[in-house]
Amino acid sequence: MYEYVGNMHMHTIYSDADGTHEDIARAAIQTGLDFVVVTDRNIWINGMDGYRYLGEQRVLLLVGEEIHDQTRSPQKNHMLVFEAGKELSPLASQAQSLLDAVHEAEGLSFLAHPVDSAAPVIREPDLSWVDWEIDGYSGIELWNAMSEFKSLLKNLLAAFYYAYRPERIAHGPFPETLKRWDRLLISGKRVVAIGSSGAFPYKIKLGPFRPLILPYQIHFKTINTHILTDRPLTGNVEEDRHILFDNLRQGHCFIGYDLPASTRGFRFMAQSDQGEIMMGDTTRLRFGITLQIQLPQSAEVRLLRDGKEIRHWPSKRNTILTVTKPGIYRVEVYIFYKGKRRGWIFSNTIFVTE
User: Fold this and answer.
1) Is the pLDDT of residue 274 over 90?
2) Looking at residues 217-226, what average pLDDT do you find?
3) Structurally, how many domains does the chain consist of?
């Protein structure tokens, strides 16, 4: 099994940010990412996809889009669109029509920052998702670093503090987002969870100085999506994008907060009489299912079924557990960092049916 780490939500000078595609690629290589997906708001920049190199290191840069209805007030419903291969923002006013168009183009759609409170101190409105009656999206952005940053900005002092102490920001996905995801899964929807930065570095004015706040390098060290594949990337752009997005579509991935310690090497698998499966897959319950959890280092582990904790280990690195009930199983891992308990790893789900 191969593991590739990337960030799937960020902006450039084409929308919000003060950086270019080349800035993103350089920062991604310097921080050890394998791929990045640029998602400028309501603009699809064609022709930028490809590998970028820095010496012997490389990163695969791909372009998607973050689409929302710019005429709506207040702003809501931002959607990340990958692999549609064309501009779809004219359909933003009707979320279901947009989803249908993404599906027709064989693309993927993720509801961006489902919970995203307003931050008046930096003039950012509430951008939460509200149209939950729609159907057919690929997944949700379970953990968005910029949304969490916004939630902490109660005043100007807090804004400066967290801007210059980014290691103090992350605590985990919002509880209401986790609950929403569990409800969607229990209702029968196959909803893949990803984590991203939502990065838009920008320069502020401090007299004659123009410092860059929250540069890409900071974002790429924090909330990332780790995609697991059964074959390696080849160096061919079209082949490799298919490998990554096909496995993402199936939920063969997990969310890792890579700043306290690298989450590379996490695995959540199930063994049954049908063989071994990974996150995102389904197996039948006949004689019991053996779940396997592997961590890069010891940490607090929670095993959940249908959104409820069924086992808790205060400190564990590897564990094997046999379960005898059908349900939707997932794992949460927590680590102490900078004096606080913080989310470290959030798996996608294993579906166990009767």
Assistant:
1) no
2) 93
3) 2
